[in-house]
Amino acid sequence: MPTLQDALDRLPKELTADLRGAVLVLRLARPAKRNALNDAMIEGLRDLFSGLGEPVKAVVLEGEGEHFSAGLDLSEVGERDVIAGIAHSRSWHQAFEQIQFGQVPVIAVLKGAVVGGGLELACAAHVRVAERSVFYALPEAQRGIFVGGGGAVRLPRLIGTSRMMDMMLTGRVYGAEEGEVVGLSSYLVDDGEGLDKAFVLAERMAANAWLTNYAVLQVLPRIVESDPASGFMTEALMAAIAQADPAAKGRLRDFLEKRAAKVKE
After folding, report:
1. What is the average pLDDT score of the chain?
2. CA gap 11, 47 in Å, rounded
3. Given 14, 62, 131, 140, which residue is catalytic?
4. What is the residue-wise DSSP string for 205-218?
5. pLDDT tens digits, one per residue of 41-61
């Protein structure tokens, strides 16, 4: 059976990673290209996230250098016909679905350019920590293309359809503070502090009960997309399954017997 090390050994040179306890720190490693995403990186992301298992319980995703990602490497677009273009877009969908609906929570550390496909990748993460250097843009209309990495599905759920339309039609760029207000980031920190903040959050997530994290990643998004009656029933079923888990019973006993920490700021 393939191990985590096998998966790490198969990473393309444009991706690097190291394991810190239960947290895997994964880096986009094309700083000279502002971490523009090429086919090898997309395949590497798909393969890694589809095979994650013990001991990884959370992932921090960052970019080397001054930027998270400037998006699709346009030098690879070439003269694709429609069929090839669909296949290329679907390869991005498959990779990013492995992130969004994977085994572990993913935190993206955003700095510098978070543009086009880089923003689409960031949207597939579950939590986004932005540094003050960050800027967000969707320049596809100016390039004569359209989003193809799931942005048309994920981004409107974060910021609303009208804001995404504005970004694409006018080339509007959001800075760090405005981006946090509209929902592009979950946390805003000073430059250079993003990785440390993300790592603290990742360790907190890794300490959660596995089944609860699984429910948040897999079940919650599907409840949101369902009709209310189905959502209520799915919620009840998931709540019952989680409460019956032996790990949950142990945690609840610890709390009731005052062996567990209480909620605080």
Report:
1. 92
2. 8
3. 140
4. HHTS-HHHHHIIII
5. 999 999 999 988 889 999 999
Query: Is the torsion defined by CA of 103, 107, 113, 114 positive or negative?
Result: positive
Taking each continuous run of H as one helix and of E as one strand, the counts in the chain are: 13, 9
Q: Looking at the domain 4-206, which fold is it?
A: 2-enoyl-CoA Hydratase; Chain A, domain 1 (3.90.226)
Domains of the chain, by residue range, sit at 4-206, 210-256
C-alpha R_g of the chain:
19
Task: Report the alpha-carbon distance of residue 93 to residue 58 in Å, rounded.
Answer: 21
Q: Catalytic: which of 14, 62, 120, 131?
A: 120
Q: What is the CATH number of domain 210-256?
A: 1.10.12.10
- 185-202 average pLDDT score: 98
Identify whether 43 is a catalytic site residue. Answer: no
**Is residue 140 flagged as an active site residue?**
yes
